[in-house]
Specification:
alpha/beta; globular; 12 helices; binds zinc ion
């Protein structure tokens, strides 16, 4: 069973014009993306063609930079009803855009959200800002930890207009890993392309920190993480499709399979790590 832990199926209508332009410029097949965002069935057929059994569908509240409001959560929870075993919803609560963070988090738990996303460069905050007075962020981590829901944190740069890249440094996740030891933390993109060493350190240092390789061209993966095999047990396959620079899910899978790594490590990254986080 292969899981892609990082695919963006989003309410495309919510994109701000500048963010939408940034998407369209890089995507010759933008109509297909729109179709998939409207039809889970069409998207499931695409996953079949790509040999992907399950996909975690990433959504997050980021009104300033991307345009997404909290409605994105309802969107994705409804979307996955078509195939709840294959489509796992990921949502978010934004500390500055929620009236009652605890209530909103508990609502997401009731909706059976399978992961919470924190996107520092798009949400304009540091992942450890609860140490700087943003108590709402502490509540988000607490509720997730209590309910065994993993949190994915975007690490690395973003080229969307208005994104602030200082927030993308994974070192700020170190505090979160220390303060919430039972919370599973997934480092999306492994700090690419500036902070891979930090990401690798954090995965090795903290039992609760995992690596999501999405957004890294598979052909460059071992250049970025030469010792990937050592952390295979905590590494997850993901594509970040249809993000800029990720033309096709199946191509990524093929490129990943062609890497000079042991079959055991590849199987672990494609299948087993995700199954340990979201059992089938
Ligand atoms: Zn992404």
């Amino acid at each position: 069973m292969i899981t892609d832990c990082h695919i963006h199926i989003q309410p495309v209508e919510m994109f701000k014009p500048a963010a939408l332009e940034a998407m369209k410029r890089k995507r010759p097949n933008f109509d297909q993306i729109v179709e998939f965002c409207h039809s889970a069935n069409a998207f499931l057929k695409y996953l079949d063609r790509c040999e992907i059994d399950r996909a975690v569908l990433i959504n997050y509240v980021a009104p300033e930079v991307i345009g997404f409001t909290a409605e994105t959560n309802e969107f994705i929870v409804n979307y996955v009803k078509e195939a709840p075993k294959r489509l796992l919803p990921c949502g978010s609560v934004h500390p500055r855009h929620s009236q009652d963070v605890r209530k909103d988090m508990e609502h997401l738990v009731r909706l059976n959200i399978r992961m919470i996303k924190v996107h520092p460069p798009h949400q304009l905050l540091y992942p450890n800002d609860y140490l700087n007075g943003v108590q709402e962020l502490r509540i988000i981590y607490e509720v997730a930890e209590q309910h065994g829901i993993p949190v994915m944190i975007h690490t690395g740069t973003s080229i969307f207009p208005g994104a602030r890249n200082k927030y993308g440094d994974p070192i700020f996740v170190d505090d979160v890993a220390v303060d919430f030891p039972k919370l599973k933390l997934l480092l999306a993109h492994g700090g690419r392309p500036l902070w891979m060493n930090t990401a690798f350190f954090l995965v090795r240092r903290h039992p609760n920190v995992f690596l999501d390789i999405s957004g890294i061209p598979p052909k460059l993966l071992l250049k970025y993480f030469p010792r990937l095999e050592e952390i295979a047990g905590k590494t997850l396959f993901g594509t970040d499709w249809p993000g800029p620079g990720v033309p096709d899910v199946h191509q990524n899978l093929e490129d990943f399979r062609a890497l000079p790594m042991s079959d055991g490590a590849k199987h672990q990254i494609l299948s087993k790590t995700a199954l340990s986080i979201w059992p089938a």
